[in-house]
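Collaborator request log, item 7. Partner lab (contact: R.S.) asked for a structural prediction of AraC-like DNA-binding protein to inform their binding assays.
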Amino acid sequence: MVNPTRGVLYPARLPEFHRLPATGAAGEVVVWFWIPEWDIEPGRSSRQEIVGYPALNLVVEPDAVTLSGATTRATHRDLRGTGWAVGALLRPAAVAALIDDPVAVVDEERMLDEPELLTSVTSAMRSGEGHRERAVAAFSRWIAERVGPLDAAARQANALVDVLLGDDAASSVEEAALRLAVSVRTLQRLAHRHVGLSPAAMIRRRRLQDAAQQLRADPGVDLATLAAEFGYADHAHLTRDFRAVLGIAPSAYRADARR
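Returned to partner:
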């Protein structure tokens, strides 16, 4: 199921926001599409804070197409005026068709010259009722054609992320390698080639997202209990991870989320 807010640190602050599934063959190369739309009164702004999935995003805005790399820290964007974006959270199989070295765009963005994608998505977003679905359909057709049929290596890369981030995710790098019947070294090479992060970093990000989501859902939860539930050694370990990525302690995040 598409979770509408996982990875969003303060969902209550979102403008109109939708997550839609990929259509057709694009389901093998896109996890989901995300579409924010905003109309903010003059002189005001809306800060959106995200602890992103360990993955790349291909994003279309009214005047540009951008490839955003995986992130190692929480990020934010200040929205002003009127606008929209249509982003695709990419599965690893899509990455090789768009960039040779995903490590080069970790915590970075790169403008892409993709006029066909820009025109088709922009036209759909301006087409009235049903515009989001038409934009996703156009985006899905484009990226499925761009990536083409998946080979064994691409499918193995997708399986890597399923094992590390799926509903029944592995709790360690060694367990993930065992499930995929590969060596830990091969697992590390796959992750760097198709995501740009290490498998261990991907596991830590999943745990942090889950812990943040649980804090929002149950602000009264004991932090030591929360740490144990999501695989942290102790409360202090959870706090260090929160501070390293979000810049705040879990207790402070919980207070902010309540407000």
